[in-house]
């Protein structure tokens, strides 16, 4: 895959075997680092999606791919930034207390300004506006007061990413087009439906995960909050899969990782390595009968 915003690579085509591919990257916090395996697999197969959708961390990874970054570039950048605890803390420290203020409600402990944080962490390859992307991208956010999913696909890209990844209680809501937006995973954890009419083969990647434990000891307060959210999102995904599944649905092995385990990037990538071959086998099977 071409890794810059210059000329397209003639070796990488939107179609493979006469089929157009699209990919939906789901939400799940640090577990979404495993999306890199899917991007690398598509790179290795010479597949350039005709469209991408993403929710929460999936919007971040999807934006990297839609900007023209290769899976290897995204991997290296992730490890060099959030994958090093020292580098991660240093970037956050340099942002100062302003990360905890915005126009929606002033100072709140534990309620961080994700727009500022993403500004310090997103790679330069990710442009400010959707119009500068190389692959069309649809970002899912949740309209808090509208009680509905909002699909963002034009205008300020970085604000849209922040809106999609604004986990309630952890990050401040984000205002988009006059509406208050929060984490897209609330309404649509794996937004593959947006792509079904745009491609012949749609790949959905679920990194929501599920609570893990010995079944005997109750979770602590934080784990119970995030675990309850996981159960709710998995119920939503299960219903969607019954009604209208994508052509390929992947669940990387990332359950044991928590939402904020970004410094464990290397472990997450190692644990999810198998999904790369799983995707390749699934694509090979589809192309055999196409």
- The H-and-E topology, N to C, reads as EEHEHHHHEEHEEEHEHH
- Report the average pLDDT across residues: 88
Uncertain residue segments? 1-12, 103-110
Class by alpha and beta content = alpha/beta
Describe this structure in words.
The protein has 290 residues and is α/β, with parallel strands linked by helices. It is 36% helix and 14% strand. It has nine helices and nine strands. The chain has helices spanning 35-45, 57-66, 71-80, 85-95, 114-121, 157-164, 221-243, 265-271, 274-289, and strands at residues 15-16, 19-25, 51-55, 137-143, 148-152, 174-176, 179-182, 201-205, 248-250. Strands 1, 2, 3, 4, 5, 6, 7, 8 and 9 form a nine-stranded mixed sheet that branches. The radius of gyration is 18 Å and the shape is globular. The two termini are 23 Å apart.
Topology:
Elements (H helix, E strand, L loop, with lengths): L14 E2 L2 E7 L9 H11 L5 E5 L1 H10 L4 H10 L4 H11 L18 H8 L15 E7 L4 E5 L4 H8 L9 E3 L2 E4 L18 E5 L15 H23 L4 E3 L14 H7 L2 H16 L1
Parallel strand pairs: 2-3, 2-8, 3-4, 8-9
Antiparallel strand pairs: 1-2, 4-5, 4-7, 6-7
Helix pairs in contact: 1-3, 1-9, 5-6
Quick description:
The chain is α/β, with parallel strands linked by helices. The protein is built from 9 helices and 9 strands. 36% of the residues lie in helices and 14% in strands.
